[in-house]
Design goal:
By secondary structure, this protein is an alpha+beta fold. It is built from 17 helices and 14 strands. It is elongated. About 4% of the residues have low confidence.
Length: 612
């Protein structure tokens, strides 16, 4: 049994927080990985007994009379649309529901339901399970299934033909059945009972009321299926709206080709033409031309002037490299099929471990950029410490605030204190040393030499009719146009409990986003240089990084129009907190891509001219 979840509150709770039957010997918690703990999963064993290929109808237990607190809790969980999440052989229980004539697949089953025009709530206390099995035949090996502990394999000697069954599907039909508690009290757990037809009429359903005794029963039916073991997850991962994904990619390609055309014009028609004309002149004509220079050539003595807040820029670029590397490697591995949906929490665990180990790249890039700006690597240790603490510090602060909210709500989504110490230990023992090591390598690397000298007195930037930051913020709309359709599917998978497994599409969108960010930043940097604005460093970063603003605004739009079921200020604060953290990570990643592209473009541009 996994945690109870709801798309209305987004606050998970333990299954045994409600008055359900407990297994013989009491509930035992399964070992969980880092990702499962962070997602609020709590896996316990259940009282439901399944015997392979044995269809039966069984009694579980009858509760003691419901107390006022238990009734209140059951009613609240029912009206908040909480779902019970079960797993059999790592497959989530799924049920089919018909809405507006459309058959919809859901995972889990509801705690209870409230009929229309009724003040009574009814508890789900009878489950009809249908287990799809595929008969397996092979030489010497019988595979039964993948349990939590691993692959169960039975070998037979002498290469005899072995046959067995693989679990390839797990469906549940929930219903509410009122039973006579006096009659049921005489039964013991796993005694056979008569099967029932679902759904029942309201007068035959179990109402949630004080002093009521609830009887829990279930039926198991094993059905042979042609579905094979490798295909058993297909029904969960069935991709809806493939045409929309392709439309998103086509839309992104149009943006890329449009921007690529502008870049092509800049390089071939403008820059190359100017440089060719300049190189063909003799020295005397060059000196005369220098006096008549216009546009980007006028800022040759200021273009590499130290930007404002250079330390912060180096820290943000370093963290951006770390986040970008983590995202690219994770999505590539997921697209290649190395991350199985059956391995709960592995995606998040892999992302965290990759982030920790990529600290070496963050330290190297940040310190090398610092040495390039300052001309020496003096002070590199404080830069590496800042890189190691900047984004993790922001994430830690946001998660701590959200954790206090979850603790106050007694939700299983709250991160335990022990896990906090484990995360801090991982950060301090892996990420920080590797960031310092990367910074040390950065000091040994040769600093990038500027192709032109910087004047002692800065050139005055001409006044403009409109603020340059307006153009920078507007530039973020182009990368957002690449991202927003896929963003809808990602948000739906996180907040509406849907499976997201179209990592192939996500990888394509990520690559297109990187290209668009690079092109947008390059074009905007060139435009600023052409109007003699030499302060391009931060503008190049935020030209592509401003996409995060639109991502956050879109998240608010999604909350208002698509998550209308989300109820209460606690749920809204959780949603906005996680959205803010995601937006900051996107800003650092996309901003770094744009900045590094612009830096190498400016370096190439001014290394091609000879102005004393």
């Amino acid at each position: 049994m996994n945690s109870l979840t709801s798309i209305e509150t987004e606050l998970p709770f333990s299954y045994y927080s409600l008055p359900y039957c407990k297994p013989i010997g009491g509930p035992k918690k399964s070992a969980e990985n880092l990702g499962e703990l962070l997602m609020g999963d709590q896996i316990y064993n259940s009282p439901y007994r399944f015997r392979m290929n044995v269809s039966e109808s069984l009694f579980l237990c009858t509760t003691s009379p419901l107390s006022e607190y238990e009734v209140k809790l059951l009613k609240q969980r029912t009206r908040d649309l909480y779902q019970v999440n079960m797993n059999l052989d790592n497959l989530p229980a799924m049920r089919y529901a018909v809405q507006n004539g459309v058959k919809i697949l859901w995972t889990g089953y509801p705690v209870g339901y409230t009929p229309p025009n009724s003040n009574d709530d009814y508890i789900i206390n009878h489950l009809k399970f249908k287990v799809l099995i595929h008969e397996y035949e092979g030489a010497g090996v019988q595979i039964i299934g993948t349990a939590e502990e691993g692959l169960d394999v039975i070998t037979e000697a002498d290469n005899k033909k072995a046959s067995g069954y693989e679990i390839v599907g797990f469906e549940v039909v929930p219903c509410s059945v009122k039973r006579d508690p006096e009659k049921m009290a005489k039964l013991h757990m796993y005694d056979t009972i008569e099967p029932v037809n679902c759904p029942q009429e309201l007068e035959n359903s179990q109402v949630i009321r004080e002093k009521e005794r609830v009887t829990f029963t279930y039926e198991v039916e094993f059905v042979k299926s042609d579905i094979r073991w490798p295909s058993r997850w297909d029904v969960y991962l069935k991709m809806e709206g493939a045409r929309v994904h392709w439309f998103s990619i086509l839309n992104s390609l149009m943006v890329i080709f449009f921007l690529a055309g502008i870049v092509f014009v800049i390089f071939l028609r403008t820059v190359r033409r100017d440089l060719t004309r300049y190189e063909e002149l003799d020295k005397e004509a060059q000196a005369q031309m220098n006096e008549e220079l216009s546009g980007w050539k006028l800022v040759v003595g200021d273009v590499f002037r130290e930007p404002s807040h250079p330390r912060l820029l180096c820290v943000m670029v370093g963290d951006g490299v770390q986040i970008t590397g983590m995202a690219v490697v994770t999505i590539v591995f997921a697209a290649l099929g190395f991350i199985s949906p059956a391995s709960r929490g592995m995606l998040l665990t892999g992302m965290i471990m990759l982030y920790l180990f990529l600290g070496i790249a963050a330290g190297y890039v940040g310190v090398r950029l610092w040495a390039t700006i300052k001309g020496s690597s003096e002070g590199w240790r404080s830069i590496t410490w800042s890189i190691a603490c900047f984004f993790p510090g922001i994430a830690f602060a946001i998660l701590t605030i959200l954790n206090f909210i979850l603790w106050g709500s007694k939700s299983t989504g709250a991160i335990p204190i022990s896990l906090y110490f484990k995360l801090l230990t991982l950060w301090f023992c892996i990420s920080v040393p590797l960031t310092l090591l990367g910074g040390h390598f950065g000091t040994k690397a040769e600093a990038i030499q500027y192709p032109v000298r910087t004047n002692q007195i800065p050139r005055e930037i001409p006044a403009r009719k409109y603020p340059s930051w307006l153009l920078v913020l507007g530039a973020g709309t182009l990368p957002f146009g690449t991202l927003f359709i896929e963003l809808f599917f990602i948000l739906s998978s996180i907040w509406l409990g849907r499976f997201y497994y179209v990592f192939g599409f996500l990888l394509i969108v990520l690559l297109l986003l990187i290209i668009v960010c690079a092109e947008v930043s390059l074009v905007l940097t060139y435009m600023h240089l052409c109007v003699e604005d030499w302060a391009w460093w931060w503008k190049a970063f935020y030209a592509s990084g401003s996409v995060s603003l639109y991502v956050f605004l879109y998240s608010i739009n999604y909350l208002v129009f698509d998550l209308q079921s989300l109820s209460g200020p606690v749920s809204a604060m959780l949603y906005l907190g996680y959205s803010l953290l995601m937006s900051i990570a996107i800003m650092l990643s996309t901003g770094t891509i744009g900045f590094l592209t612009s830096f190498y473009f400016v370096h190439y541009l001014f290394s091609s001219i000879k102005i004393d």
